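Backbones bend. Our protein:
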Amino acid sequence: MLDRISLEDDQLILDTLSLDIQAVHEFLKAYGCHSPGDLDLIGNELFLLKPSAWDEGYVPFFANAEAMWHSLRTRSAKPNHMRIIGMDQVQHASVSRLLALYFLVREILKTLCHSEGDDSQTLKYIFFSSKESLLTKLEVSYLMSSDELLAIEVDDKGVKHAQTMHAAAMADEDVHCEERRHVMRETLTDFLKEEKNCNIRTIMASISIFYKKYNERYKVYVSKFSVNKILTEIESDCVSFLGKVQDAIIAQQTKAFAVPGGIVTVGAILKPATTVWDYLVILVGLIISTWMITSLNNNVISHINLLSDEFERSTKKYDDIVVGVEDIQEKIEDSRKKLLTASDSANSKLNGLTRICWLIFILVSLILLKRFIEA
């Protein structure tokens, strides 16, 4: 039915010829007309411009873009319906996209601003920025003509960026809501500081650039917020890895106490041993003991080396940090040195234990060989 609406003498008229009046009323109700029966029907012509018949007095049909903009520019939110008579689908989609962006940016500015304009400063959002004890006042006007609005070029991606920032500014269910708004407010004041005439159309025309700058600033803020936590995590990981290395050393050192005991035992067994079978049993037992201790030591050394690799992998997650990177890298390097020192010490002690076991094995084997020859 939209193609039946026309403009005649400053009146928007719906031609109801050959239409069911009930269907016409249902169509108008869908567009916000709560009392379509109150509209003047003269012959087949239904006059639409009667605000009292529409929700909030808003008639969603307009003769041209200027009339549409004059009606909508001061509203707090984009209306559900809006139609400019005679405009094709492509043009209408473009206008609808601009309106969506306009009201998104308006609500973002309203949420972020410190105050709104008064009677002497209409259609403005006012911001205050304090840096180095210098207070700066920024006024962003949302007053512009329909021609200025239609001259703005924006795509669906720009609207999506505005929707993302709108969601970030309006969300208040988490502990970072005020911080996000502060970051966005600071981004806005920096973004407009070089502009002579701060107007909403400047933001709309460069919405994707503004979104990128906000993202960069927010990432910096999150990084700053996380630096101390990251340093604590690195220290905790380092202590954990050092503890595991120490546990491995202690466990093997406990087993090492069996070595001197084994020597005493071998000596006690050798004294009464007189036959080849006695020597063979002692040799087999010594081989098994030496092999087990060597194998366990090698396994522990591999485990310690694996811990070092795991520590390196665990620190890779901090590669994307953009703030405090020097402190973080310094902490990682310090922890790496501690872990490397502990690992080298552990490997040295375990390798020394292995060499002692093999030395004992060789000495006992030579004694057995001598006893066997003498027998």
Observations:
- Residues 226-374 form one domain.
- The beta strands are 5-8, 11-15, 41-42, 45-47, 61-62, 83-84, 115-116, 124-131, 134-141.
